[in-house]
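FAQ

Q: What does a record look like?
A: Structure on top, sequence underneath. For example:
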């Protein structure tokens, strides 16, 4: 049976460190026999804005959204690569969550439980890996901002949707990094992915 790895990149520049890290992961996944479902949200023109008619959020007339949902549904492993912008994912990635992590696919409510109740996670993926780039020094990110991306991805997204394994790695500050340091970060990405295969 094929193993599927969904790889999502959310950075506007194809020359970004986020893209380089995703390519490192994709190479390893392919070597290990995974079918890689790779999506560059900007290159694909993914529309992050959920239209009014999609408010029920169980299907979409946007075929690209439907393709992403099909890939998310079959993924055994999910990898997300994005920069930390204002302590949040870029808007295009937040819109991807809004439109693709939908009821009936990523989570749902048991019979008799209303939307104020506790949902049940439905995702097939057993592990989610998030790789962030940042220009904020790590000590400041934790002490001043409280590391908001950790809770968002671990609890609000993947934890809620039933993914038991989670790891997030942060690389930076990128703006002052050397080629040697960036090469070591790429090696860390590969080692992190390898631990979860």
């Amino acid at each position: 049976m094929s193993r599927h790895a969904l790889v999502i990149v959310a950075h506007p520049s194809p020359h970004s460190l986020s893209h380089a890290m995703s390519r490192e992961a994709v190479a390893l996944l392919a070597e290990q026999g995974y079918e890689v479902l790779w999506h560059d949200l900007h290159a694909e023109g993914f529309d992050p804005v959920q239209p009014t008619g999609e408010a029920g959020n169980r299907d979409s007339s946007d075929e690209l959204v439907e393709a992403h949902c099909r890939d998310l549904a079959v993924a055994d492993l999910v990898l997300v690569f994005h920069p930390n912008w204002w302590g949040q994912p870029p808007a295009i990635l937040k819109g991807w969550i809004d439109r693709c992590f939908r009821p009936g696919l990523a989570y749902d409510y048991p019979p008799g439980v209303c939307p104020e109740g506790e949902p049940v996670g439905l995702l097939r993926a057993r592990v989610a890996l998030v790789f962030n780039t940042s220009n904020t020094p790590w000590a400041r990110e934790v002490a001043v901002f409280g590391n908001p991306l950790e809770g968002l991805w671990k609890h609000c997204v993947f934890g809620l949707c039933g993914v038991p394994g989670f790891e997030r790695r942060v690389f930076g500050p990128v703006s002052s990094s050397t080629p040697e340091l960036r090469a070591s970060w790429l090696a860390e990405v590969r080692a992190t992915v390898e631990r979860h295969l």
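Q: Is there anything notable about this one?
A: The radius of gyration is 17 Å.
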